[in-house]
Design goal:
367 residues, alpha/beta, 17 strands, 18% strand, globular
């Protein structure tokens, strides 16, 4: 089933790419200057979609037009990338974002070559937006993310050697099941899970697994590995939607970790065009709060100037406009401190699994 869906997605991806290239040629034929409109990817151009319950791009656009030298160069590069991606799909091959950057060195026109990887990454994002197709369906991969999950879940994955059934506790080591680049190739077969716990750091993820938290509370532990990769956010969304599992996000208590939660729950500014596909609007925050720092007398670090600036920006960020976040962020600015989730170890190695998480999960109605 997953294979048929994947093949259909790839066929649509190639058709959309070729249609986009055809638009440029049609513009030429009609005597118009070729152009391509892209939503402005800034905080000021995201808005809440009431139906999807996620943050998406608004109406502001920028134009890539051949009227300027800069615009013409960008369109030329887009044509080269479209040609490369359509050939890649034809041949059923894949490549990484890093490889695309280096591949451009071999292109005939020096002008079509990328100056740095940020430029090639941004162009892939542009093509995703205008074609309404994700880069995974273009067969584009990021560098290895290494994010994993562990828990009472049986799944079937597609590999080049055929299908493989895996139980994400019984058939994996302590490191867990590594999430593939395109989680839509996975089929969920069975599960005994009660909820999904997304964890920011590897150290805390290992503590939970060592203490048997996944067994005791029937939870699927997803390691976010810092700012989560798209594959991690996608599988989290699927676990919630398809298995009807609550999702909670456990992070450090600092502004950068709040943004990690925001990317899981609300969608990120950079990939707002995929929020309905990646974000999990019902996800709840269970990470370290400024009130926890005071209540549990946790070891802390002082807020740096960049931390303070980030917190102040979050007070203006539309994704954080509710009473909970406003109160907590203002409290953090008042106390001038931040804390890591591992700071809970100051109260004992088992405190996080025996007291902190069970208490919070019970208060939230998850267990």
């Amino acid at each position: 089933m997953a294979t048929d869906t994947t093949n259909q997605s790839e066929a649509v991806a190639r058709e959309q790419l070729l249609d986009l290239a055809a638009e440029f040629y049609d513009q030429f034929a009609d005597g118009a200057v070729p152009s391509m409109q892209i939503p402005t990817r800034t905080k000021s151009n995201i808005e809440y979609d009431e139906d999807a319950e996620v943050w998406v791009y608004g109406d502001r656009h920028s134009t890539r037009s051949a009227k300027t030298v800069s615009g013409a160069k960008k369109l030329l590069k887009a044509i080269y990338v479209i040609d490369f991606l359509s050939t890649q799909l034809d041949e059923d091959r894949s490549s990484t974002l890093r490889e695309l950057y280096y591949l451009s060195e071999s292109w005939d026109h020096e002008i079509a070559q990328f100056s740095d990887q940020n430029e090639s990454n941004q162009l892939i994002e542009d093509l995703e937006i205008v074609s309404d197709v994700s880069r995974e369906d273009f067969h584009m991969r990021p560098e290895e993310s290494g994010a994993t999950l562990m828990g009472p879940l049986q799944l079937r994955e597609q590999t080049r050697r055929g299908e493989r059934d895996i139980h994400c506790q019984k058939d994996v080591g302590e490191g867990g099941y590594q999430i593939p680049n395109n989680p839509d190739t996975i089929e969920f077969l069975d599960n005994d899970a009660d909820f999904v716990l997304c964890v920011e750091t590897g150290g805390m993820r290992d503590r939970l697994v060592e203490n048997g938290f996944d067994d005791e509370y029937n939870t699927i532990i997803v390691h976010l590995k810092g700012q989560p990769a798209r594959a991690t956010r996608r599988i989290t969304r699927r676990l919630h939607d398809e298995l009807d599992l609550p999702v909670v996000v456990f992070t450090d208590g600092d502004p950068w970790s709040y943004r990690i939660f925001a990317s899981v729950a609300y969608g990120s500014i950079k990939s707002a065009h995929l929020s309905e596909y990646l974000a999990t609007p019902d996800a709840q925050y269970i990470g370290i709060q400024p009130t926890d720092i005071v209540e549990y007398d946790l070891p802390t670090d002082p807020l740096s100037d960049s931390d303070i600036n980030a917190l102040e920006n979050e007070l203006e960020d539309p994704r954080f406009q509710d009473d909970f976040w406003t109160t907590e962020i203002e409290h953090q600015l008042d106390i001038g401190k931040k804390a890591e989730q591992q700071a809970l170890a100051a109260r004992g190695l088992d405190f996080v699994t025996d007291e902190y998480l069970p208490s919070r999960l019970d208060e939230m109605g998850v267990i």
